[in-house]
Amino acid sequence: SKVIGILGAIPEEVNGIIHSLTNVTEVVIGGRKYYKGLLYGVNVVVVYSRIGKVAASVTVSTLLLHFNVSNVVFVGVAGGIHADVRVGDVVVAKDLIQYDMDASPLRPKFEIPLLGQTYFHSEEALSRKLLASIESFLAIDCLTKHIEPVELRKFNIEAPRVHYGTIASGDQFFSTNKQKQALIDELPNVLCVEMEGAAVAQVCYEFGVPFIVIRTISDNANQEASFSFQSFVQIISLVYGREIVKEIVKS
Ligand code: ADE
């Protein structure tokens, strides 16, 4: 039967979801607290992994092996890379790449050695279906039901949009234009950057479990990133996470 594993990297990305759970039991494994419960009648296990590819990998492995989840959802924030992507927009992953994997000249840059895979594809039908419901949530008169207009103005969120494309992951927080430009030069199709998605994607691929990754843009992956990120996750990411996961569970 269906059990959805829901991960974020930090408490601010999953707290809104955990507060919506009923019939909760808490289980601690490997220093992480897994919240098992019901979300709108669906069995889920919710956890924050902590930041980075290793943290995310061990957490999703635990969801798969200990909790036997049948589907995996990662929700959280990301830094905007592509010029079309703005703070407050949502990116639904079509596929994910680990931009910091490089075993060349043994294997082509970015390919995971011995797996022979560079891009990991998310569950396409569900991802595409969610584009419409996320777009309705982002309509400004809907968004302002959940978030004060004054908070939205702080981040210049006016007409947020949903995008579908490539997400890049690696163990770096982007806080300079130099980091951002280097990624654009190597991988011009990337929409946003974060630190867990492609690791979760690789583990799910290897276990044959369908997954989706949905990221809200918290910053522009440049000089202002750390300030923007910190205020965004304090105020807004909780609401986006809760409302997006509601759409996922209902679909
Ligand atoms: N997640 C959110 N913002 C990020 C950034 N600027 N770099 C890496 N991961 C992020």
UniProtKB/TrEMBL annotation:
Q: Start and end of every Nucleoside phosphorylase domain?
A: 4-237
EC annotation? 3.2.2.9
Tell me which Gene Ontology terms the entry assigns under biological process: L-methionine salvage from methylthioadenosine; L-methionine salvage from S-adenosylmethionine; nucleoside catabolic process
Keyword annotations of the record = Amino-acid biosynthesis, Glycosidase, Hydrolase, Methionine biosynthesis
- Please verify whether the record's keywords include Disulfide bond: no
Question: GO molecular-function annotation terms?
Answer: adenosylhomocysteine nucleosidase activity; methylthioadenosine nucleosidase activity
Which domain of life does the protein's organism represent?
Bacteria
Pfam families, per database record: PNP_UDP_1
Give the CC-aspect GO terms: cytosol
Pathway, per record: Amino-acid biosynthesis; L-methionine biosynthesis via salvage pathway; S-methyl-5-thio-alpha-D-ribose 1-phosphate from S-methyl-5'-thioadenosine (hydrolase route): step 1/2
Q: Does the keyword Hydrolase apply?
A: yes
Name of this protein: adenosylhomocysteine nucleosidase
